[in-house]
User: Fold this.
Amino acid sequence: MTTTPDKLTDLVNVTIDGIQVAVPKDTLVIRAAEQVGVQVPRFCDHPLLAPVGACRQCLVDVPDAGNGRGFPKPQASCTLPVAEGMVVNTQVTSPVADKAQQGVMEFLLINHPLDCPVCDKGGECPLQNQAMSNGRGDSRFAGNIKRTFPKPINLSPIVLLDRERCIVCQRCTRFADEIAGDPFIALVERGAEQQIGIADDAPFLSYFSGNVIQICPVGALTSEAYRFRSRPFDLVSSPAVAEHDACGSAIRVDHRRGKVMRRQSGDDPAVNEEWITDKDRFAFAYAHGDDRITYPQVRGTDGVLRPASWPEAFAVAARGLAAAMDANAGGGSGVGVLTGGRLTVEDAYAYSKLARVALGTNDIDFRSRPLSAEETAFLAQHVVLTAPGNGGVTYGDLESAAKVVLVGLEPEDEAGAIWLRLRKSVLAGGTEVIAVAPYTSRGLSKLSARLVPTVPGDEAAALADLGDDVDGGTVILVGERLATSPGALTAAADLAARSGARLAWVPRRAGDRGAIEAGCLPNLLPGGRPVADAGARVDIATAWGVDSLTETEGRDADGIVAALAAGELGGLLIAGVDPADTTDPAATRAAIKAAGFVVALDLRETEVTRAADVVLPVAPVTDKAGTFVNWEGRVRPFDAALRNPASLPEVRILAGIATELSSLGVGAPLGLRTVEQTRAEMAQLGPWDGERNASAAVDTAVEPVEATDGLVLSTWKQSIDNGRMQDGDKYLKATARTPVALLPQDVFDACGPTVTLTGDRGSVTLPAEVGDDLVAGVVWVPANSFGAGVLSDLASPGSRVRVEGGQG
Amino acid sequence: MPDTLTPVLTDMWDVDRAWTLPAYEAKGGYQSLDKAFAMKQDDVIAAVKDSGLRGRGGAGFPTGMKWSFIPQDNPRPKYLVVNADESEPGTCKDIPLMMGNPHVLVEGVIVSSYAIRANKAFIYIRGEVLHVIRRVQAAVAEAYAAGHLGTNIHGSGYDLDVVVHAGAGAYICGEETALLEGLEGRRGQPRLRPPFPAVAGLYASPTVINNVESIASVPSIITNGAKWFASMGTEKSKGFGIFSLSGHVQKPGQYEAPLGITLRELLDLAGGIREGHDLKFWTPGGSSTPLLTAEHLDVPLDFEGVGAAGSMLGTRALQIFDETVCVVRAVLRWTEFYKHESCGKCTPCREGTWWLVQTLARLEKGQGTEADLDLLLDQCDNILGRSFCALGDGATSPISSSIQYFRDEYLAHLTHGGCPFDPARSTVFGSASTVEVSA
Assistant:
């Protein structure tokens, strides 16, 4: 982003250890030295944090500062920018620098405990390593008294601090302040007693707190979940991609003997830099719980699920699905496919192909959440096929944009890497964030966002009024929640077209964007090919070697649920869908019950698998290769971290079902069995280069809302909540924000600190707080932090709720 | 010999209720204001430059040049900050000055702020000296009431507000960037430079930070002229300064004299070393300046002269120690001070002072070997010039200089198996003691 051609001429020539090197202006000496292959030891220095010069480990000799004069004393190379003609001698060539570094190292070790053999950091510890490379073997501190502290104290439920080990480099406090904006930790006391501290009543609660454990250059900050669990040299590290949101964050899975021990942030400057959310870091135990499904099951004649072999399960599934497609066999006449939002793009492609070639239907939808026909059209028109290579919005664009408009998106909760990138740019003075939202959330206030106060549902009007604020230098980010706001997605697209602003859609789940590309939508075939376009259908049919494809667009997820309940569809192929997430959880449950035949593919036992006729276990992301496509449209492939022959990727399972189906005379085999084959076929297919879906005139007219009493409900899922993929780590769960209802001041005054909310689906009682700038007539609650969630327990999307004083 | 003294700042300390506005105005106070307001700001800066006034806080940077570094094309407000966080062991000039004559500081603040185009000035006073804070607050209030502060001062159209800020008791806040952090409400730790305060200081705005005595000297320069000021002192260290004599002298106190005076002259003024004793060692400018000994009695006390003698003029805090004082004991006490006051930001100072105290304490008890002296010197070498700010450098000064001059005394501790001195003898009540030390 920053390397423009004219910048390249802005090079500065310096001589480091006798080697001349040209580096960009303002480069710090410590990084210029890296260019000539010299690693100056360092602790406080971190490329993504502002220089501080605290640890003094990186002292170098500068005999010529570029003006012919040298510095009389060694200089901290982490704070010194290069100058033309500068001469630097590091520890490699300068005895002065070497002695200075050894002296600082000796000081650092004076008060450092010798508990390396039991320290989590031992083996990957910058202090340990650099004490070996740039320190002295023997201590001259013999017989003296070390400063001691009681061993670790909790900074938060997940982060522990061992103050003895701390070298107060301030990386953690600087991260909390500069990156996450959650300055719950700070230096306290002074001199050798100086330490990292928290206020008595304010633990280090941050969605990004785990990063401080990773950047701690000693073992002072440790993870409650990982402490004493393994040694770094016993771990195998596999690069991977985080599966908890649509950010596509690079992570590293550290595992030992087939078991994931911890996850660390990867380093991808184009995406998440070196930071990940706590959910990405700590939420991985869900795949290893007691409820993991490890073998196929089929429902016997006694109505009870029993273990089955894979071949039997394939055969039973195929027979059931074939029957469900046969109108003469009673029930409906077809199978709907609900794929959920967690699939890799390869698996999603397999579902998409299976639906078309084997089940002969376009009744497929990845959206296991409230949706709309408007959204379906929007995805086909404005989202599919956008990518960094073809003008799609990127993280870099967020950083360079003059303005970023957030609509229906709370990035700190829903897309952590986006939030971090925005904050970076806001703090650098580069970007102004404008939020079309009902109130200034904690995340928005840390972005210094300008609020356009908007009642949920009124986003279309708010966007239309934004006119003057939006121009070609603006990026509009729309969240998936806008599906429930009539006209909002259309208004966002119109605004972008009118103003020249760029538009990107940010879903919540890792597989959402890939599912669109793979054609897990009723109106799209793989590669963004419109179902309604005959040329596109021919394209695909030819590639797949089938005669033809269904011409009509299929039912969306809500339509599939309705059709199942009405008996219009006979069967359901369902994967990783939690009914509680769907538009109408009760209706989804009823539809599953009503379906003549249900094949469920899932990782863990759920209410869906308990109701299914055939249950097929699938591989978790650690056990298979795959690809996520993130919100940018960036392809994020990863390999299997663990080898587990019992774990099958879904493409292999679906191939088995399709083969059995074809042997029954239904449809064609999948023609794919492995992830590699799928990737090859997708690559060969390529993207659609024809016309986009002619924007089918979707009715976006706002239905007159029944003038009922109560407040409009605003809700979204918080980063840490009751999501099932956060199961298994109680420490992470303990960092979730306490669920509260945010009320306007007048309602709070009338109803008090505990309120009961009553909507069309139930009542909940929650502690209440005043939302300082909450729009009048709105109440906000977290979507999945209490009970079975808002959609199950409180209200349908877009409905109103009554608020009464609860029993406190 | 009385002619040696040049009482300017201390001139009215003996006046009845010298700290009040009427007493100050009766002595011609606040007259430099109208004279300054009649000058262009740049001419005021030029006058201070021409006077040769150098910073009185210790470093001796030319005051007028510091003012001229303020970028006047910067649209942000400019600030004057007076460093009155006097905490150096031995230094005791600003506190008595603010007690005895607070108005000369206020007057200096007004003229200096005018020169650098600041409309807001801060006086950051060490938090422990509540009586001084109250006295300066009262003086500022009097000045406001008399129209010397506020809007349209003396009809000149110039506005100035002065804030008296109490520190919270940290030696490090005498370091100017740590002071700014403290003034902004943050943790008092020094800032990375650049940017220098002149470019981005208080609230990221151009800021001049001067010592109390520097600012208090400005009115006399404006009133009497740069030439008058430059007629005093030595070639490169012009003007007068307060020399604070403490310790084993007959008449300890503040002696305002031209720079370049010698300790021998000052001791004459102060009645000499206490009866029956001899000078053993002294600090020229507080504990952070390397020790000097009787052989340096005739060193001219200006920036160059003391520098040539291997020390620093510092704050002219002349602590006088006679032969009853154990240098190891004195140095250990100072080192404990630095350990206590190290802010903790950088490794050499934070950990180094922790270690120095333990090594010195062992030596004082007669434990260890001569090799520990080399270890001490090596530790000092690893701190000096390696720490983030000058606090760490200062911590090494008494140690390395005392070993330089009194190595044998350190060794005597080892051979004696403890301190060969009777600490009571260095006290006031112990001075009459005739008990011989068994050595």
